UniProtKB/TrEMBL annotation:
Originating organism: Rhodococcus sovatensis
PANTHER family cross-referenced by the UniProt entry: BINDING OXIDOREDUCTASE, PUTATIVE (AFU_ORTHOLOGUE AFUA_2G08260)-RELATED
Entry keyword set: Flavoprotein, Oxidoreductase
Cited InterPro entries: Aldolase_TIM, NADH_flavin_oxidoreductase, OxRdtase_FMN_N
Domain NADH:flavin oxidoreductase/NADH oxidase N-terminal per the UniProt entry, residue ranges: 10-256
Protein name as catalogued: NADH:flavin oxidoreductase
SUPFAM superfamilies, sorted: FMN-linked oxidoreductases (SSF51395)
A Pfam family matched in the record: Oxidored_FMN
Family matches, as Gene3D superfamilies: Aldolase class I
Amino acid sequence: MSTQPKWEELSSPIEMRGVTFKNRMMRSGMYEGMATERGEVTPELEDWIARQAAGGAACIFPGYTNVCLPRCMPYQAGSYSDSHIPGLTKLAEIIHSHGAVAGLQLAAAGRQANPNLFFSDAEAVMGPSAMGPSPLYQAACREMTEAEIWQAVEDQAAAAARAKEAGFDIVLPNAAHGYMLAQFLSPHTNMRTDAWGGTPEKRFKFFEETFRAVREAVGPEMLVWTKISVEEPWDDGINLDEAKIFIPEVAKLVDAIEISGGTIVDNVFMMTRGEIPIGTLRKGIGGSVEGISAELVDVLYGIRDSVKFEEAYWYDHALALKPLCGDTPLILTGGHKYPATMNQIIKEGTADMLSLARVLAAEPDFPNEVVAGREDPGKCSSCNKCLVEVVLGNKLQCFLPEPGYTHA
């Protein structure tokens, strides 16, 4: 005699474009720092993704891949060269072997490029508009030319084609967290007055051209998702009102929308709310991340109350934006720890799937245990040491002391 799972809605399958997801939990593209300098997949990265995939999430995204040079982070997997396809193929095969759907996240650094990671003088920090040095990398950004903008569109499409060749089911160009797609959407970083900026419609042009090119590159059957910022750490950046303008247009171009917020180089803790590990940050002073200074640490200490952990901290944004998505599923990330709350979000229809990152770094088996009826919250303490360590160039790991929490 079969019984319904305790968390029925969270454990239920969902189908998109003929692809079935066994439950409503997915592993977000959390950066691991385990690739080679040139972006090739390593056995260590394969092992990490295998452990994540075995944990029961319906869909696994490895950490985001760089569609072009320069890079934002060291030891970041690449999708900018055909030489990356064999390693990416192995990751897709590993994910599929555990019954999960395989997704690949694509990103271009733009103004978030780290000059200390340049391979040649041909690389440049550039974005929609010229800007002063970023807080984290202390690198000024120059304005992209028309030709460079169209090349950036092609870079995303070419990377998407490589993801398809590697066997991934989903390709997700990242329009969140301050990467290039987000830079064009944001009025803070896009101050152009040509066809690519000046109004919300013109700021949306780069996103639209990119996703049309990606769809053409992968064909009509492959799932195309996006992750998009709905809040940024500036008064003149993307906010909920801005998001309400572009989300209906985004929904026409993609098969699912994952919402998030914050940026890497300005306020990373906005996207990973919790503690600010001051001592870990101080270890980076004088290292390869130019902006980590005693002054920056003091500034971050001053904003600690504004980034405190809250359960499902983008929930209110999802509540406002879900009705604007039409039939396009909305995926909610950020602060999912309590199974009862997670199930309620799916049950009430505020989101169609939930995206997990830090909680799975701490407990890869969390989805399996939730499906089996677990009521206890995820054990991730939101200490954010995992986040800061990868920014400093170290490998992703959980710092909770209890045995069994870290990957071995």
